[in-house]
Write the structure tokens for this entry.
Amino acid sequence: MKKIFLISSFILFGQAAFTQSKQKTNKQLRQERINQLIKKEEEGSIIFNKQWVAGGQLNSDGYGAFGELMYFKTPKVSYWYRLELGEHKSNKEEKVLNSDPAVGRNTFIYGKINNFFYAKLGFGQQYFIGNKGNKNGVAVSLLYGGGLSAGLLKPYVLEVVDVAATKTEFITYDPKNPDIRFLYPYLTVGSGGFLKGWDKLQFRPGVYGKVALRFDYGRYNETVSALEAGINWEIYKYGMPIMLGAKAQQFLFNAYVAVMLGHRR
């Protein structure tokens, strides 16, 4: 019995030693590959050809999601193409609870007349500033560029009580013939929901620009994980009304923080 125990212990010890040796070898191989990439880059060669990422961002006036394709032209300069979708919100937006519990405890944004969505298609450059020369190094880059922005105004729909107070109906704000129930929250049941109002969507053409800093964690890895912080500005042909009584802005300016994941080769 003792002999069997010794043999089993020897086998387990051998397997553990082999696994540890294999892990060490893989780690060494990865470090050697990174060292080769660093040397290649120092010699002026491009270590990756392109990368693609997807991510989300929080703006100072809303939120967005994006996809980006980047081509590396030199060790320091890259070109990016980006599609971004999102929504701008007004700082005056505030959710209100309806005053009649008999129709359900629903919320709505008092005074809101439009949802302001956007779709951006842009192009620009990324300029590499510097990083730590190791496998966990953080590469810092400056990004700048711009492109076209499609502003999309979707009417904000309210569910309100009709004049006879016998049923409810859905209304949108018409500046030429405003419904007074838009101004009386006690007649409002709640928001009409995201799916309503798309049949009255309005398009507003515009352009945009951006400047940002990107922090790429693990520059020499094929997997991309990065953070980005920057500023955006947008100019539209017409004003973009969001709230009743507030000025419809043609020029918008915001700051943002984004997180992204992707792959490069």
Notes: The CA atoms of residues 69 and 84 lie 12 Å apart.
